[in-house]
Amino acid sequence: MISALLPTIAIGSLAFGIGAGLDSSEIAFQPATSPAAAVSQPEGPQPVAAVDLAADVKSIDGIMKALYESTAGPPGQPRDWDRLRNLCHSNMRFLAVREEDQGGTVVFVLTVEDYIMHNRTYFENGGFFESELARRTESFGNITHVWSTFESRMGSADAEPYTRGIYSVQLLKDGDRWWILSLSWDMEREGNPLPEKYLESPQE
Length: 204
Hints:
Blueprint: E1 2-5, H1 35-38, H2 53-56, H3 60-70, H4 81-87, E2 88-99, E3 105-110, H5 112-126, E4 129-140, E5 143-153, E6 163-174, E7 177-187
Parallel strand pairs: 1-3, 2-7
Antiparallel strand pairs: 2-3, 4-5, 5-6, 6-7
Helix pairs in contact: 3-4
């Protein structure tokens, strides 16, 4: 059974790792001294580079690249939240799917501002980097669905990711730009491995 909860807690990995490896019983505000943050490699804050917001939304490649980059950074570095806002339609929703211990599924539904509010401290204090492993894209008219397989790290130099998962992204082509209409995601875990076909991008 799928239930929707009000966004009263922080959700990691948008994945996005919008604390990506947390299950529904663990999703909570993550201080900088949390165990997950403690194992990351400190990198120190870096200046946030200026980006071309118009270029971010001119193509599917551009909007997906911007999605991953807008929340990424080492501990202490502010994230480019305006860049994330620029990608999202006014009615866009983040949908974090988590499996409950007693069975069933819970969905956390957040607006863009909800997502930023509940994840700002987690991302900026803990360090967070995500990379896209593979992508599958299907389009019809002005709508596109992207399956984006990702892995998440606390530090960009970490040898192994602490979690992996898949983003399901609904995009809208609106004239000469793209919008994100919705983004849902689920995590790899015991009994739910990433399928082989989602670990590589199909040949164009």
